[in-house]
Amino acid sequence: MAKFVINGGKKLTGRVKVSGAKNSALKLMAASILATGKTVLENVPQIEDVQTMAQVLRTLGARVELDQEKGAVEIETGGIRSFEAPYQLVRKMRASILVAGPLLSRFGKVKVAVPGGCNIGSRQIDLHLKGFEVMGTESFLEHGYVHARIKNGIGKLSGALIDLDFPSRGATENIMMAACLAKGKTVINNAAKEPEIVDLANFLISMGADIEGAGRDCINIKGTGTLKGASYRVMADSIEAGTFITAGAIWGRDVTVEGALAHNMEIFLTKLKEIGIDIEVSKDKVRVSRGEGPFRSVHVSTLPYPGFPTDLQPIMAVLLATIPGISIITENVFENRFMYVDELNRMGANIKIDGHHAIIRGVESFSGAPVTACDLRAGAALVLAGLKAEGLTEVVDIFHIQRGYECFDEKLSKIGANIMKVD
């Protein structure tokens, strides 16, 4: 299996460009099921999760063509004859569950395996199913698959008032897509507000959907008869941008992250400024340098957007582990998000877990060691730690990282990191 080998201690400087957002591209690919005609998506990251979603769509009967050089995906869904997303694909990637809403809306039925993905905590699909049931479906779980269909097997979904118990991004996206072809109006209260929600809504609107309020607590969707294929450019990936910004903060002289949308990551950038990192923001890029003054420890609490993103929590922990004093991270989203801590401590970090809090005592340096990536963001965090460490660091199980970061090692190499992928 492949691994990253990192020779730490190299200063980072230069420019790095952010790819399209994984957490948007996958949802837009699923949403193409709703459309008649051809859908073309641009700025799609060439990552494993995109390959998996493409295979899910092909299994359903869609035609999917990936142009890796241009970062484009072309999809036609007129050939869909199957309504089952099989376990061997869904287990690789939780986002596969998002074919459920479009399939129910357009075809009235779906069979999808209970999803897998990163093992960072319980992410039940109850909110998805409750929303579908309010819109007129019946569902049951059998042999590891969720079966859902419109009651009596005829007609269309019906618009409804849906109050989410928690602002779940996945449930918001799935219900919003399901509502696009439903009869009447659907209102989603306590909706998730992430930028990817807005990107999905804008894409659906470009196909002919009637949606208002995306990015706010309440989203209104009026069902339409049909949606047509469209061309659309995927938004930039704020989590990837945050990862490179943190790399520059940990061990950089002067790093510019092109494509970074500062307005989508305000809380994260505010925390870096509190630490003492120099941040210079322009329209579509962020420049970061370590500055002259001493760094300060901080407290961080993860929350749904616009709070501090849980996906950047492991990345921030690496930076805080190098800062004198005591920092505290409180994880409020996923209960298993601290699985990376033992591996980081093997490299010399001093982090103790107390419930859903991580107490971090800053150390002067890390030392290179063989470590294992247990999930996507944890893997990226260990790579950043390796950049700071003395000596060699080997990160194994990097398939997790390749699920979500396009050419991660190549981009880091361009700004001065000594990293290579070894099979």
How would the blueprint of this fold be written?
Layout: E1 3-7, E2 12-17, H1 22-31, E3 35-36, E4 38-42, H2 48-60, E5 63-67, E6 72-76, E7 84-85, H3 87-90, H4 100-107, E8 109-113, H5 126-134, E9 137-142, E10 145-150, E11 161-163, H6 169-179, E12 185-189, H7 195-206, E13 210-212, E14 219-222, E15 227-228, E16 231-233, H8 238-251, E17 252-258, H9 266-275, E18 278-282, E19 285-289, E20 299-301, H10 313-320, E21 326-330, H11 341-346, E22 350-354, E23 357-361, E24 370-372, H12 376-388, E25 392-396, H13 399-404, H14 408-414, E26 419-422
Parallel strand pairs: 2-17, 3-15, 4-16, 7-8, 11-12, 20-21, 24-25
Antiparallel strand pairs: 1-25, 1-26, 4-6, 5-6, 8-10, 9-10, 12-14, 13-14, 17-19, 18-19, 21-23, 22-23
Helix pairs in contact: 1-2, 1-7, 4-6, 5-6, 6-7, 8-10, 8-12, 10-12
Structurally, the number of domains stands at 2
Biggest sheet: strand arrangement = 24-25-1-26
Annotation, overall tally of beta strands: 26
Structural class of the secondary elements?
Answer: alpha/beta
CATH class of the largest domain: Alpha Beta
Q: Supply the CATH architecture of the largest domain.
A: Alpha-beta prism
Shape: elongated
Oligomer: single chain
Which spans of ≥5 residues are poorly predicted at pLDDT below 50?
Answer: 117-123
Q: What is the rounded Rg?
A: 22 Å
In which range does the helix fraction lie?
A: 25-40%
CATH homologous superfamily (4th level) name of the largest domain: Enolpyruvate transferase domain
Give the N-to-C terminal Cα separation.
Answer: 6 Å
Strand content: 25-35%
Number of helices: 14
In the CATH hierarchy, the third-tier topology of the largest domain is known as: UDP-n-acetylglucosamine1-carboxyvinyl-transferase, Chain
Could you tell me the mean pLDDT? 93
Q: Please outline the major beta sheet.
A: 4 strands, mixed
